[in-house]
Amino acid sequence: MKFFVYFDAYGHARRVVNQEQLAQTYHNDPDEFLRAMCRQRSGEAFNPTTGHVGILSFDNEQELADYLESLGDEITGFYGCHSQSRPYNF
Q1: C-beta separation of 58 from 5 below 8 A
Q2: Each residue of 43-72: b (16+ CB within 10 Å) or e?
Q3: Mind spelling out the 3-state secondary structure of the chain?
Q4: Going by C-beta distance under 8 Å and a sequence separation of 6 or more, which residues neighbour residue 51?
Q5: Could you tell me which residues come within 8 angstroms of residue 43 by beta carbon, excluding any fewer than 6 positions away?
Q6: Which of 33, 38, 64, 65 has the fewest other C-beta atoms within 10 Å?
Q7: pLDDT digits (tens, 9 = 90+) for 16-64
Q8: pTM here?
């Protein structure tokens, strides 16, 4: 089963539709889905693309949910890292 996932500019999954929903709502066009998601986020009629649509294939919706949950852990872990940095002296 194919799923179309809108990822915002930061890589966060914001919206998921399956093949049937894409065909019914967005005329089976991932680009139209992307434009609709960008308009929804900005509230404007025209907005430059600020994300992307990924096409993912899973056997069922539970596998998709597990995958999306794992993305949250990776992103949180990455941004929550600590480093040893010193301020610049000019």
Answers
A1: no
A2: eeeeeeeebebeeeeeeeeeebeeeeeeee
A3: CEEEEEEECCCCEEEEEEHHHHHHHHCCCHHHHHHHHHHHHHCCCCCCCCEEEEEEECCCHHHHHHHHHHHHHHHHHHHCCCCCCCCCCC
A4: 6, 7, 8, 9, 14, 34, 37, 38
A5: none
A6: 65
A7: 999 999 999 999 999 999 888 887 655 555 556 678 899 999 999 999 9
A8: 0.69
